[in-house]
Design goal:
One of its GO terms (molecular function) is DNA binding. This protein has about 180 residues and is α/β, with parallel strands linked by helices. The chain has seven helices and six strands, in the order E-H-H-H-E-E-E-H-E-H-E-H-H.
Length: about 180
């Protein structure tokens, strides 16, 4: 099976996801980036994806860098390079027989360009819904795990439970 690589246009998501738009409108762009990275990290881990999140350097000039955070690769492009041009280049380089690239952006021109390079696309809304669905699944699994451990918190130890089970069997036989 092909390795799945998701390349995300970070500011495109921040401009589309409701809670991120709200943070951006409150001039909390750093907080919006942080929330995006945290949510994408959980999504990536659960769905077993490699994720690259790309931000335009034009909104944060002079900080071209690439680093790992929350098991994601975070890229701030060069000052003269847009996130779109970086994404186009990387999608073309990384999409091969062993890796299926999906680009998350709502920019239609960008979507057509990545299609031409053989990559798949997801709109900001589609990715948002996928992330929400995964978050709900994670919450259900966490609840299931909690209740699996619930028995372990019983005041009875295994020996006592075994004796109780034997006694129950004994009493059941007496009824018959």
């Amino acid at each position: 099976m092909k390795k799945q690589l998701l390349i995300v246009d970070g500011y495109n998501m921040i401009g589309s996801w409701p809670e991120l738009v709200q943070l951006k409108n409150q001039n909390k762009l750093e907080d919006a980036r942080e929330v995006l990275l945290q949510r994408l990290s959980n999504y990536a881990k659960y769905e077993d994806l490699e994720v690259i999140v790309v931000f335009d350097a034009q909104l944060v000039p002079g900080i071209q860098q690439t680093y790992k955070k929350y098991h994601l690769t975070v890229v701030f492009t060069k000052e003269e390079e847009t996130a779109d041009s970086y994404i186009e280049r990387i999608a073309g380089e990384k999409n091969d027989r062993l890796t299926q690239v999906t680009v998350a952006t709502s920019d239609l021109a960008e979507q057509w360009l990545v299609f031409s390079k053989g990559a798949l696309r997801a709109s900001a809304k589609e990715l948002y819904k996928n992330v929400q669905k995964t978050e709900r699944t994670i919450a259900v699994h966490a609840t299931d795990i909690h209740f699996q451990d619930f028995r372990r918190n019983s005041p009875w130890n295994l020996e006592q439970l075994s004796k109780l089970s034997e006694k129950l069997d004994e009493l059941s036989k007496k009824k018959d």
